[in-house]
């Protein structure tokens, strides 16, 4: 197993390098320059000043040379200085990363809490009225755009009812609250972003759990368990569900890129101070060092999630052994 994990980590290196090459190329060939935001709004800046800015940021060099200079810095974990405010890009990302990880971990937990019981119920009660209602609800969740749901929830629960905050991660008086008050304040700010972030995955995960459970419930060992007199509850949760987890692990591994990418939209809509919102602001400002830094971190998190999913295969099914 250790050799397999080490091999996967080594294979991940060229993948991350390839992702950075594509990201850098797309960023370079996109119309406009990072200095446009500085020069376009200042009529006193001359063309000579613009050229000096290009040279200062190294933008006058060929694209392959710019990429090579960036790559040499990244090897020693230096993402460069932000074009926007001159701060180290790595510091800006590290400040926002915990909030994004918290949002994605809670979204993943909510997906499992909702989708697994829903999938099991639909499989056990297949083709009943409850199964059809649940299936319809899940597909509605999958069909509606996340940003539209976010706006509707903000209007209903934030503006009309006033139950939940609609932006940020904590209130202005957070430092003056007690410990329980801080926990409750943080929880209130996370309810809407976590719900919207996980909404579309409810249908996907529940459908895979339902399909996996239906296949397992037809197996001979399940019929043998019924013949031996095991209770229906033990057969479903102790024998069938564990063997139906393999497709779910696959989907969870594939959901990580969607969660990381979706955080760009969710965090921007809710003004959530995470890495996704920082990435959106960096894209709008053409802040190349921050964009590339977030690209590397996102690629690393995605590949790490896929490796963890592969390891969980062997935990869920001892018959699987990696060489």
From TrEMBL:
Residues 97-309 form the ABC transmembrane type-1 domain. It is a multi-pass membrane protein. It comes from the Bacteria. Keywords: Cell membrane, Membrane, Transmembrane, Transmembrane helix, Transport. GO terms for cellular component: plasma membrane. The keyword Cytoplasm does not apply. The chain crosses the membrane at residues 9-29, 101-124, 136-163, 190-209, 245-270, 290-313. It is found in: Cell membrane. One of its GO terms (biological process) is transmembrane transport. Belongs to the binding-protein-dependent transport system permease family. This is Oligopeptide transport system permease protein AppB. It comes from Endomicrobium proavitum.
């Amino acid at each position: 197993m250790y050799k397999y994990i080490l091999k996967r980590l080594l294979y991940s290196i060229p993948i991350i390098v390839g992702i950075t090459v594509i990201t850098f190329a797309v960023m370079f060939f996109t119309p406009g320059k990072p200095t446009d935001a500085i020069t376009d709004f200042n009529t006193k800046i001359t063309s000579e000043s613009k050229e000096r800015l290009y040279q200062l940021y190294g933008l006058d060099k060929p694209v392959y040379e710019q990429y090579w200079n960036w790559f040499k810095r990244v090897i020693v974990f230096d993402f460069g200085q932000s074009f926007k405010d001159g701060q180290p890009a790595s510091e800006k990302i590290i400040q926002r990363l915990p909030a994004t990880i918290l949002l994605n971990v809670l979204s993943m937990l909510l997906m499992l809490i909702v989708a697994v019981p829903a999938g099991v119920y639909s499989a056990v009660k297949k083709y009943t009225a409850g199964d059809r209602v649940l299936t319809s609800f899940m597909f509605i969740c999958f069909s509606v755009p996340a940003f539209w749901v976010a706006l509707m929830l903000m209007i209903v629960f934030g503006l009309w009812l006033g139950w939940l905050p609609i932006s940020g991660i904590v209130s202005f008086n957070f430092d003056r609250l007690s410990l329980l008050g801080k926990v409750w304040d943080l929880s209130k700010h996370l309810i809407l972003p976590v719900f919207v972030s996980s909404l579309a995955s409810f249908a996907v995960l529940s459908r895979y759990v339902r399909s996996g459970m239906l296949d397992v419930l037809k197996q001979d060992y399940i019929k043998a368990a019924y013949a031996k007199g095991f209770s229906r509850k033990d057969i479903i949760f102790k024998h069938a569900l564990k063997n139906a987890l393999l497709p779910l692990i696959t989907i969870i591994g594939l959901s990580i890129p969607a969660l990381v990418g979706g955080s760009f939209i969710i965090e921007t809509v809710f003004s959530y101070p995470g890495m996704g919102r920082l990435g959106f602001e960096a894209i709008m400002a053409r802040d190349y060092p921050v964009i590339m830094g977030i690209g590397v971190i996102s690629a690393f998190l995605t590949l790490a999630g896929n490796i963890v999913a592969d390891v969980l295969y062997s935990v869920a099914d001892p018959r699987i052994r990696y060489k």
